[in-house]
Amino acid sequence: MKKFIVLLILCCASSQVWPEEATLQNIKVDTDLPAIERGMDDLMNNCHACHSLKYISYLDLLKLGIDKKKVDFMRGDQPLAAPLTGMLSDEAAMQMFGLVPPDLSLMTKAREGGPSYVYSYLLGYYNTPDGVTHNRIFPATKMPDPLGISTATDPAKREELKKTAHDIVSFLAWASDPHSAERHRLGYYVIGYLLFLTALLYAVKNRIWAGLKKH
């Protein structure tokens, strides 16, 4: 009986520890251009070798405000309308990982938790005592630690990697809805037009009723 109670306590304790380890770190993405551009640079250096952003074109980067020389350097001989395809072919990816790395265009919308999930995933890598790398957020992942957070022991280096992950997620949040700012600006015009139209119709209604009351 005592052994059963001890075992039950251990099971309860372990069930409390695991959710704490896998808890998402809630973040607020940056929407300013410098942060998004830094995230783009970091993603191109750390993720683009395997992952694509098929719903984002080089033209979208120009419209965002990225310098044309940088965009031209990134795209090489590809047209401006070409998507940001990864450098690793599907066949090579299947041989290396047994699956094709997912497209990142809508990743912050596809995962429950949104940007917080992706941020926590990037920083969720750790090494076991026997030297095997795992991820707390997605244990079944086959992707190697892209930022090297699992081997970073210096506090300053870990803080730097957290900023890098935050910038990458900010870029991916923009990539999941690159026309959001444009829609917001258009929304202000639409609301202004509707307010003007409402005031105009109200004035016309008052004028018509004023004429009817005289009769």
Description:
With 215 residues, this protein is mostly helical. It folds into two domains: 31-178, Orthogonal Bundle (Cytochrome Bc1 Complex, Chain D, domain 2); 180-209. The protein is 58% helix and 6% strand. It contains nine helices and four strands, in the order ααβααβαααββαα. It has helices at 2-21, 33-46, 58-64, 68-75, 90-97, 107-110, 115-122, 155-175, 180-214, and strands at 53-57, 83-84, 125-127, 133-135. The strands form two sheets. Strands 1-2 form a two-stranded antiparallel ribbon. Helix 2 packs across helix 8 (155-175), helix 3 (58-64) runs antiparallel to helix 4 (68-75) and helix 7 runs antiparallel to helix 8. It is elongated. Mean pLDDT is 84; it is low at 1-21. It is found in: Membrane. Heme c binds at residues 47, 50-51, 143. Residues 1-19 form the signal peptide. Keywords: Heme, Iron, Membrane, Metal-binding, Signal, Transmembrane, Transmembrane helix. This is Cytochrome bc1 complex, cytochrome c1.
What is the fold's blueprint, element by element?
Elements: H1 2-21, H2 33-46, E1 53-57, H3 58-64, H4 68-75, E2 83-84, H5 90-97, H6 107-110, H7 115-122, E3 125-127, E4 133-135, H8 155-175, H9 180-214
Antiparallel strand pairs: 1-2, 3-4
Strand numbers in spatial order across the main sheet:
1-2
Number of domains: 2
Query: Helix and strand succession?
Result: HHEHHEHHHEEHH
Q: What would the principal axes of the Cα set say about the shape?
A: elongated
The first-level CATH class of the largest domain is given as Mainly Alpha
The CATH superfamily of the largest domain appears as Cytochrome c-like domain
Largest sheet: 2 strands, antiparallel
Level of helix content?
A: 55-70%
Q: What is the CATH topology classification name of the largest domain?
A: Cytochrome Bc1 Complex, Chain D, domain 2
Query: What does the average pLDDT come to?
Result: 84
Kindly report how far apart the N and C termini lie. 97 Å
Topology, number of strands: 4
The stretches of 5 or more residues where confidence is low (pLDDT under 50) are 1-21
Percentage of residues in DSSP E strands: 5-15%
* Rounded radius of gyration (Å): 26 Å
How many DSSP H or I helices? 9
Q: Specify the structural class.
A: mainly alpha
CATH architecture title of the largest domain: Orthogonal Bundle
